[in-house]
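Table S2 (continued). Query chain:
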Amino acid sequence: MTGPLQGIKVLEFTHAVMGPCAGFMMASNGAEVILVEPPKGSPTRFLKGFGTGYFSFYNRNKKSLALDIKSEEGLSIIYELVKSVDVVIENFGPGTMDRLQLGYEKLKEINPSLIYCSLKGFLSGPYEKRHAMDEVVQMMGGLAYMTGRSGDPLRAGTSVVDITGGMFGYIGILQALYERHQTGEGKFVKSALFETCAFLVGQHMAYQSQVDYPIPPMPERVSAWSIYKIFDTKDDDKVFIGIISDKHWERLCHAFGWQDWLQDDRLKTNNDRIDQRDWFIPEINERISAFTKKEIILKCEEAHIPFAPISQPSQLFEDEQLVQGNSLAPVTMPNGKKVELPVFPIEYGGLRMTALENPPEIGEHNQEIIASIPKH
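Corresponding output:
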């Protein structure tokens, strides 16, 4: 692996999504990331249902060190490795790492320049000893309320808080690495699910502060944009169209031949169209439904206005933007199937940081890692 973090060494004590996501970001940018897991393998490897893809997706580009860290020998190996690593990442329950004698206070005695990233349910405060998961904080953090309809809170369709919390952990690690370059000192970094969720919902908190009524969940909102919704098509499909400027409105009308609406003084501006939504939205629903999905997409693309087909995850494997833009990279799944999955989603110096290594087998790198420990 090459990348901006080449030469950085990471020990990862993680499971599920939040911690592995932070480690994956480090590994995708060139860091050597060693996943420490039990001799029988991380429980995440064996999850079913919606957990089936967790391990394969978030543990690419890592090495596996399978150890019994509760044994004297296993703990001794970890202590020796800590002497030469730059970062430790962990996302176990509150107090777990301290009980295992692997907490920050213990490890910084071994390596004062160590950056220790702890990913938890809550930051410091009254809730900090609680256990939490993505769905727990989506419920208590207002996100499920905003996603569902009134009386029917709904979690987001992916582990959005786990992933974003892992991203904040990654950002904190990068900040600590930069500061250490100046001071030579390590740092304790903490990211948490609940505060991450509150940050995501913060724009709605700001909205609530400006009005004297309870803000509605997103499916029932009055959009800031006059056209910003899913439309049914003539061929019983669906397309999303978002018109976010008056220039877009003009292009939409020209593309679909709606010259009458361009001359209608009631629809001159975005706010005018919002004021007319009681009759305007049903009317545009009817007009759009006269076209097929293919016709709508072609007209919107030619008019340079925002649109989207309603895709399922299975369709992304063949998406031309992802395929031709090198946003997917091959991985061999536990069942032996070879597929291409999304890589770290930025361009860096005009290049993509593409994943190169399959998720490791249990203890695949034990011999290599243990042999690298300096002999005293």
